[in-house]
């Protein structure tokens, strides 16, 4: 649905050169919720603006719903943008318009008849849980309600793709949870493909099917969340399941065990007890957790095994044979 291929964007000002996007490639499958996570200045917002060609890459291609946006004329590009909805961090509502007027604005721009606008606005306000608030003004709304208006407005043109620019960063945790739940419901009910940028790992945990990490304009890792959890050294795996810093005691091995899929449905204690009995060793549990992610349950445990990694070849093989991903930490 969204295919970004080797795009580059360089800004030059006052003798300085800043590479905002450095050979970035990304693929978002139809119906997927894809998160791009990174710190401020990583290039996330430039990447999102490039998807709509509001920021034209210096090179590379952006294909959305089968259309190569970089090859379109301005007229064709305006038409293509109507199939892409955008949710903004700070809502971007017009203070002089009521809720209904804000949601209707994109439909006015495209020339939709008044009767059609009213029908569509009522439908959208009900969809996002704001039925009855059409005549309220943005100043009368909470942050969560404002963002729901922004979401309804983004859906006005019945887009196939929804882009989210830090949509929850200005909200409290409880409101963030409700907005993420709404986005996930819209993704499933409407078949929307969602590309969101965020600096919050909890957003990835709660809503994303796939994710990528950006640093200094580059994608440093990407894939399905489930795949990344089992990838050695994954930053997303560490962020989703932080484990306590541990220094191995002399003569011991520290190993991080990741549970995904069927393995996550079973009790981690069972794996540990089976391991201890099968190899007659004492196994220490140093930390861990199991979480419900968008793609199903997953978890990580940090275990301490007696002996060196070479001594523990058989116990480590025992765990791998049971479908667990391992990373020897020390």
Can you tell me about this structure?
The chain has 330 residues and is of the alpha/beta class. The protein is built from twelve helices and 14 strands. The strands form three sheets. It has a six-stranded mixed β-sheet with strand order 6-7-8-3-9-10, with helices on both faces. A four-stranded antiparallel β-sheet has the order 2-1-4-5, covered by helices on one side. The radius of gyration is 23 Å and the shape is elongated.
Summarize the structure.
By secondary structure, the chain is of the alpha/beta class.
What is the CATH C-level name of the largest domain? Answer: Alpha Beta
Largest beta sheet, briefly?
6 strands, mixed
In the sheet with the most strands, the strands line up as 6-7-8-3-9-10
Overall average residue pLDDT: 90
Distance between the terminal alpha carbons, to the nearest Å? 42 Å
Give the CA-based shape. elongated
Give the uncertain stretches in residue-range form. none
Q: Based on helices, strands and strand pairing, what is the structural class? A: alpha/beta
**CATH topology term of the largest domain:** Rossmann fold
Q: Tell me how many strands there are.
A: 14
Please state the second-level CATH architecture of the largest domain: 3-Layer(aba) Sandwich
Q: Could you tell me the radius of gyration in angstroms?
A: 23 Å
N to C succession of SSEs: EEEHEEHEHHHEHEHEEHHEHHEEHE
Q: How many H/I helical runs?
A: 12
Give the fraction of residues assigned to helices: 25-40%
Report the CATH superfamily of the largest domain: P-loop containing nucleotide triphosphate hydrolases
| Total domain count | 2
